[in-house]
Amino acid sequence: MMTTSDDLQKDLESSSAEKVQDEKEPWGAKRWEKYLVAEVTTSHADILLLSCSFISGLVDGTIYNAYGTFVSMQTGNTIFLGLGGATPHHTTKPYGWAKSLTSIACFCLGCYFFSNMSRYLGALRRGTFVASFLFQSIIIFIAAAIIEGGAVNGSLATLTNDIEWRTELPIALLSFQSAGQISSSRILNLSEIPTVVLTSMMFDIFSDTKLISPLTKNVKRNRRVIAFLCILVGAVASGFIAQGTGRIQIPLWIAAGIKTVVTIAWMIWPEKKANAA
Most buried among 121, 148, 180, 207, by the most CB within 10 A? Predict the structure, then answer.
């Protein structure tokens, strides 16, 4: 049955009336609940994921510089783990494989946790993104605070003949939270910005049949290129900051601050329009 113009007009008037009523309703528990369970638009959400790409470069560059392992790029960790058994004990990283194993295991746990959390709370709901990124921010803050407080060595000169097992703690925390970023990229259907992977993204860039098309004609290529640059710039920044201060917690504080801004952005992100479903 086709919808008449009168029916359409009534629907529009009803929707407008409901919107006005929502705006008049005081910010009590009911309105907050309605606000948090509302689905957000995915339009321009790539900006937030590009920020996360910068965070990945910043954090990975910092942790590798200090502890010789990654917390986001698990390809490198897999190679380090595989080489571990053949690495002689007198090298500068005799137990580097243990750090890589910790990172891989915690990243996998993070993938399981964040993906199931999104399914349970509702994938595109505002509250889901706020909870996810707030949790990620808190984890980075905790890792930075642990190092700042001296519980874990925050010096760049930690790659010694004996592993400092306490460094496993920030590695575990940071690896776990980084899984939340790629989980969000999948939920937002922005797989071209995985935020924690470079190899497949580089392939997608240079295998694109529209690689040299105008900027306005290939949005996915643009996102991939910018994501690559964000990771690269983050890594460069981590090197300069860490070398300048001699400590690794400063880049982590910066990363936590940026992710907090992303959390706030999700809190005020526009709601998905009814006709965009």
Answer: 180
Distance between CA atoms of residues 208 and 245, nearest Å: 41
Euclidean distance between CA atoms 180 and 176, whole angstroms: 8
Q: Is the dihedral of CA 30, 32, 34, 37 positive or negative?
A: negative
Q: Is the pLDDT at 166 greater than 50, yes or no?
A: yes
How far is residue 6 from each of residues 11, 17, 72, measured CA to CA in Å?
9, 16, 55
Counting residues of the chain whose pLDDT is more than 90, the rounded percentage is 58
In angstroms, the CA 272 to CA 45 distance is 12
Query: Identity (one letter) of the amino acid at 165?
Result: W
Task: Provide the whole-model pTM.
Answer: 0.85
